[in-house]
Design brief:
48 residues; mainly alpha; 94% helix
């Protein structure tokens, strides 16, 4: 029985680690997209 509990704990830890990894990567992508968007918008504004 304790073997299945540790498997559940391991699965929960793995899920948590994957969620954290994906969250960090999505935040990085969003920061880069915002930065790129603002640079393009600023370039477009200065060309007007």
């Amino acid at each position: 029985m304790s073997k299945s509990i540790s498997n559940v704990d391991w699965a929960n830890q793995l899920e948590s680690a994957i969620r954290q990894f994906v969250k960090e990567k999505l935040e990085l992508i969003m920061r880069e997209e915002i930065k790129n968007f603002l640079e393009i918008e600023q370039a477009d504004t200065s060309n007007m």
